[in-house]
């Protein structure tokens, strides 16, 4: 049977400790896909505590597995799967679904009907009993009807019940306001027209909200009874926590859609429903309804992350190795803290430096001193309107770390400034994260929930540092921190004898929404004016990181190729810009970097071979991959994990050859595959791992 000219199909399954059910779900897909053509299977795992991922890889080795690194909720998992399935219609399945043979083709046919954006099957239990999955639009009168009459009795009267209870209605195709989200297919046209699922709900109401949005945008939700899915389900009915979350999210959704006054009315109606049931079922049977009442009165703004409600949420103070006001904001300190600030109050302390810039030892001395003074003049700011709990301060330091007396004076000065701001923000016992070693003198006596050393680099290898002093400070942090997080497995292995079980690998993330390919029409005019092919680099052009000899060799040996360099430079650039095919565009703001990168034909990482690089894990790599770019890099240990996507060159000659080969043959993998490989590496997932580590630390200090 010929398959119509539909978009390709991806099946997205979100798992969380689903080892007991996922195998049967995957095994049902072959028969379900009969006559429907092939489909990609994308399993998004929300940090399962069991063997879910191993079972998926055993039963369906062809499935693409995205590991989010945290239990971010159902909507976040679905969004990650949809992002990995660019250009596809998407069938979303719970892991406890078993599709009947031929069901996928029937859903695709329903989806192809004019005006349809979502198609859903008939749901049954294991023995064939009908699951009531059709729903009417949630309203306050319907919630009141359910409270006073009960869900099934109210459902017989459309104005008073949300649930469609007439069994005959489930025997005919029809449109619905929304349907149960255990199994539903979404057209690519609908996906492209709507924003992603709302992730703040964590679980329940996210599919309701999405389907209502689809209907309001002109996309019908169509029910197809000939397509059948067995749904095991039942966890909500036995879990007080899940039942309470479901009730609270009904109210949150109404509040978000219609405003707080109508949200309050919905809360009263839902609360009445739970109160009536709690009284009717007594002490034992009403447990879940009493749990719902505790969620509803008072009602938290949004559900807590897993484990968040166990103790008061601490704030975070981060001593960064960068400065918010003049460094690239893609750095891990800023990315992690921005993600944490969606859930916690955060104070970022801009870099206090490792040594005073001095003539003969440092480059661009006056410029560096001047920009730091301008940063200090910013005092304390909230730079992001969308994150009101995210604060940045620049203390005035005295960076004379070679003298013990000067170090003590500087530590007192910086500590006093940070404590004053922390006190004003209500950060009494925060989690403290330190990236720059010179902060050790400052934080050592500070009261804290936990101390996390973000071992992003070996700072004692920095050319301008006072090596013995910085090594001693690093040693203090390595020995006394509650947790030491690494992005370099090489560095983590070398220091395991000091850190022991306190060491954790926390890979960099990437903002995949930000780093997405832009069409040529959205690329900057100064880039479009540069002739192709373009070999590009964006980031800091630092003399202790970048191999400028290699860049010049590239320009000389590939004269017909434009070498595009984007970033601030710490060295004179005339040696490169004298070549007609070298285009140094200087610093460009983080917001515009993806548009520039989208115009590269090849992205490069021309690093020096030194201890700093050998212990590195550049964020830039994931940003290149998220843009779907072919990448050529010099070698370093962490790159071994990317050998299937990155051409790695051991020396300058091989580097030039690798660029030539990439321009001629393209990347090692297609752009969509390359991008898909990093979609699970969100900064939000990395921040959640960091929060889980830090907030499980014992006792105050």
Can you characterise this structure?
By secondary structure, this protein is of the alpha/beta class. It has 29 helices and 25 strands. Strands 1, 2, 3, 4, 5, 6, 8, 10 and 11 form a nine-stranded mixed beta sheet that branches. An eight-stranded mixed beta sheet has the order 14-15-13-12-16-17-18-19, sandwiched between helices. A six-stranded parallel beta sheet has the order 22-21-20-23-24-25, sandwiched between helices. Helix 14 crosses helix 29. It is globular and about 80 Å long. It starts with 8 loop residues before the first strand and ends in a 6-residue tail after the last helix. The C terminus is likely disordered.
List keywords for this structure.
single chain; 701 residues; alpha/beta; nine-stranded mixed sheet; eight-stranded mixed sheet; 29 helices; 38% helix; globular; disordered C terminus
In short:
The chain is α/β, with parallel strands linked by helices and 701 residues long.
Largest sheet: 9 strands, mixed
Rg over CA atoms, rounded to whole Å, is: 28 Å
Mean pLDDT: 87
- Amount of beta strand: 15-25%
Number of helices: 29
Share in helix: 25-40%
Report low-confidence residues grouped into runs of 5 or more: 356-362, 697-701
- Categorize the overall geometry: globular
Compute the separation of the termini in Å. 70 Å
Number of E-type strands: 25
The quaternary organization reads as single chain
SSE-based structural type: alpha/beta
């Amino acid at each position: 049977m010929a398959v119509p000219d539909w978009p390709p199909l991806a099946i997205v399954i979100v798992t969380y400790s689903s080892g007991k059910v996922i195998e049967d779900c995957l095994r049902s897909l072959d028969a379900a896909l009969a006559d429907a053509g092939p489909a990609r299977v994308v399993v998004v795992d929300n940090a399962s505590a069991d063997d879910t991922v191993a079972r998926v890889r055993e039963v369906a080795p062809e499935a693409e597995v995205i590991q989010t690194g945290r239990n971010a909720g159902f909507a976040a998992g679905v969004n990650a799967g949809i992002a990995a399935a660019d250009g596809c219609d998407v069938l979303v399945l719970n892991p406890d679904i078993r599709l009947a043979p031929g069901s996928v083709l029937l859903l695709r046919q329903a989806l192809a009907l004019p005006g349809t954006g979502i198609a859903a099957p008939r749901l049954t239990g294991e023995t064939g009993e009908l699951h009531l999955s059709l729903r009417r639009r949630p309203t306050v009168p319907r919630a009141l009807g359910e409270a006073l009459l009960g869900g099934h009795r109210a459902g017989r009267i459309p104005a008073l019940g949300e649930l469609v209870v007439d069994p005959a209605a489930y025997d005919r195709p029809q449109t619905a306001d929304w349907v149960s989200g255990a199994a539903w297919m979404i057209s690519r046209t609908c996906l492209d027209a709507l924003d992603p699922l709302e992730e703040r709900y964590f679980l329940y109401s996210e599919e309701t909200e999405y389907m209502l949005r689809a209907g309001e945008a002109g996309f019908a939700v169509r029910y197809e009874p000939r397509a059948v899915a067995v749904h095991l389900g039942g966890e909500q009915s036995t879990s007080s926590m899940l039942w309470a979350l479901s009730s609270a999210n009904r109210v949150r959704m109404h509040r978000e859609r219609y405003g707080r006054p109508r949200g309050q009315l919905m809360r009263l109606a839902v609360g009445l429903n739970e109160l009536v049931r709690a009284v009717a079922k007594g002490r034992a049977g009403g447990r879940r309804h009493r749990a719902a009442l505790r969620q509803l009165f008072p009602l938290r703004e949004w559900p807590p992350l897993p484990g968040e409600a166990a103790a008061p949420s601490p704030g975070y103070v981060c001593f960064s190795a960068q400065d918010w006001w003049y460094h690239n904001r893609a750095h891990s300190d800023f990315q992690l803290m921005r993600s944490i600030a969606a859930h916690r109050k955060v104070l970022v302390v801009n870099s206090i430096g490792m040594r005073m810039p001095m003539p003969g030892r440092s480059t661009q001395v006056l410029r560096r001193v001047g920009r730091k003074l301008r940063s200090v003049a910013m005092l304390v700011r909230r730079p992001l309107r969308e994150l009101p709990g995210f604060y940045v301060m620049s203390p005035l330091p005295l960076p004379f770390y070679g003298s013990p007396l000067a170090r003590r004076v500087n530590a007192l000065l910086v500590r006093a400034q940070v404590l004053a701001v922390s006190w004003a923000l209500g950060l009494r016992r925060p989690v403290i994260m330190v990236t720059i070693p010179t902060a050790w003198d400052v934080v050592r006596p500070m009261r804290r929930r936990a101390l996390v050393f973000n071992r992003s680099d070996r700072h004692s290898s920095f050319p301008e540092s006072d090596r013995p002093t910085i090594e001693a400070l690093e040693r203090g942090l390595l020995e006394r921190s509650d947790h030491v997080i690494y992005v370099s497995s090489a560095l983590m292995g070398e220091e395991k004898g000091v850190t022991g079980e306190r060491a954790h690998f926390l890979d960099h993330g990437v903002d995949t929404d930000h780093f997405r390919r832009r069409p040529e029409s959205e690329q900057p005019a100064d880039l479009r004016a540069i002739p192709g092919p373009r070999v590009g680099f964006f980031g800091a052009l630092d003399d202790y990181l970048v191999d400028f000899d290699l860049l010049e060799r590239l320009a000389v040996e590939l004269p017909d190729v434009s070498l595009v360099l984007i970033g601030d430079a710490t060295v004179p650039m005339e040696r490169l810009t004298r070549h007609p095919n070298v285009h140094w565009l200087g610093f460009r703001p983080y917001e515009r970097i993806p548009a520039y990168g989208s115009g590269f034909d090849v992205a490069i990482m021309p690093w020096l071979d030194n201890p700093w690089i050998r212990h590195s894990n550049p964020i830039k790599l994931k940003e290149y991959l998220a843009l779907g770019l072919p990448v050529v890099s010099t070698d370093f240990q962490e790159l071994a994990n990317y050998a299937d996507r990155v051409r790695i060159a051991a020396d300058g000659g091989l580097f030039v050859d690798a660029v030539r080969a990439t321009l001629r043959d393209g990347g090692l993998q297609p752009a969509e595959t390359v991008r898909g490989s990093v979609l699970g590496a969100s900064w939000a997932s990395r921040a959640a791992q960091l929060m889980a580590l830090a907030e499980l630390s014992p006792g105050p200090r």
